[in-house]
Design brief:
The chain is of the alpha+beta class and 151 residues long. The chain contains eight helices and four strands; from the N terminus they run βααβααβααβαα. 33% of the residues are buried.
């Protein structure tokens, strides 16, 4: 079972799209394992975006993610990382497939509404960065046997 970090970034929060994004992930069949509405500290932003340090856009990333609250969530399911990224759509909203969150609600890459882990290993690292173990809930839904094969 994979886990992925999903952030509804400041633009998604300001545009009141948190519920829409949660609903789409739930309808996809993914299971919510943790969620918190929070103001991101500079230290957390710098650690989250550490791989981009030194790049021309790094400071802008840190400034933006700390500019307003975010909804941080951990989602899980088989192939969760790929399913979430597919649901979100391409990073550039104008290249995202119709029906994806970024296609339906975004116009520019700097206001693309969400973050989602790009690989299962990244998902584990990012979830651990944003959530303490006790903030995550392992649980089974009655519908899991209808969504996850072999459950």
């Amino acid at each position: 079972m994979e886990r992925s970090l999903v952030l509804v970034k400041p633009d998604g929060v300001q545009r009141a799209l948190v519920g829409e994004i949660i609903a789409r992930l739930e309808r996809r069949g993914l299971r919510l394992a943790g969620a918190k509405f929070m103001q991101v500290s500079t230290a957390l932003a710098e650690e989250h975006y550490a791989e981009h340090q030194g790049k021309p856009f790094y400071n802008g990333l840190v400034e933006y993610i700390t500019s307003a609250p975010v909804m941080a969530m951990a989602w899980e399911g088989p192939n969760a990382v790929a399913a979430i990224r597919q649901t979100m759509g391409a990073t550039r909203p104008t290249e995202a497939a119709p029906g994806t969150i970024r296609h339906d609600f975004g116009l520019e890459v700097g206001r693309n509404l969400t973050h989602a882990s790009d690989k299962p290993e990244t998902g584990e690292r990012e979830v651990a960065l944003w959530f303490k173990a006790e903030e995550l809930v392992s649980w089974n839904r009655d519908i899991d046997k209808w969504v996850f094969e072999g459950k």
